[in-house]
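seq as requested:
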Amino acid sequence: MPRPDLNLLFTLEVLLEEASVARAAQRLRLSPSAMSRALTRLRQTTGDPLLVRAGRHLVPTPRALELRLQVSQLVADGEAVLRPARKIDLAKLERTFTIRTRQGFVENFGPALLDRVSQEAPGVRLCFVDKSSKETSQLREGGIDLETGVVGKTTSPELRVQALFRDCFIGVVRLGHALSQDAITPSRFARARHIHISQWGMDSGPLDEALKPFGLERTVGTTVSGFSTALALARATDLVAIVPERHTGNLRTGMFSFPLPVSLPEFTVSLLWHPRLDADLAHRWLRNCVVHVCSQSNRPDKED
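struct tokens:
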């Protein structure tokens, strides 16, 4: 059985309200003949005359009277579905959002983000997962809602991107460490025992390249996969951790932080999401929360 033309619902609503082919045609900006053809189709579809002549006027049949309220509600519901959403009741919102980040982001920005979310939308739950690879397919497939990171060559061009903040790498050691005394030269820095952070399994990084013009190589004491792990080890040993400054502000409390004696470029940490969620009001609200929390985080001092 062929599916009925749902556009006829709008025509039927106007015909029943006007009880006149001419007035209905004028209201819908159709010719009277086009409206007559539409009425014929409605009669064939419903199996009822709907409007019948009584003298010089058309009057609705019992079936038409029965349909009037139902059709009006259906049309109103259809218009509501197709109308762009304009607001969201955060107090009643119940939803779980999954955010994928690297170590340090949750520890540094998570408390403020959770506090804001709980105040504005107590029914919303945030689920943070570790960013264990550069693959962004989970955003496309809907496995995660948001991701933070540095946009690179492997980032899918279809993703939406919004910059959160600029960051740079700094050195961090425990209080009382030898590097916390006197000037930190490239040679002093390289001689210290370092923590190599390699989430992607690489043996060296930009820091090692920056030391080469000085003819220096750093001594790596251990390799870990994340910033928070590196800082925990640096806090309890004589090892040196190299971490992003803003990304790890809260984690470095009570430690000695210093500018690197070699030049490394700054980088931008961004928020990424799939375009299918671009217009979702709840998702848009959460994005704004993340942006606000990151913008309110002041740059930490060089020495804590």
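The longest strand covers residues 160-167.
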